[in-house]
Amino acid sequence: MAMPRDMTAIVPDNMFDGGDLDCGSGLILLIRDAMCQVPAHGILEMRSREPTVSDDLPPWCRMSGHEYLGKEVAEGYTRYFVQKGKGLPEEEAALKKDKEEARKYQWRLRARATGHLQSTVYARNFAFDVGQAASFEEKDTHPSALEYLFGALAGSLTSGFATECARDNLEVDDIELSLGGSLNNILAHLGLEEGDPSVATIEMKCFASTFDDEDKVKLAWQRTLARSPLVATLKKAVDLQMKLVIV
Question: What are residue 218's phi and psi, to 5 degrees?
Answer without folding.
Answer: -65, -40
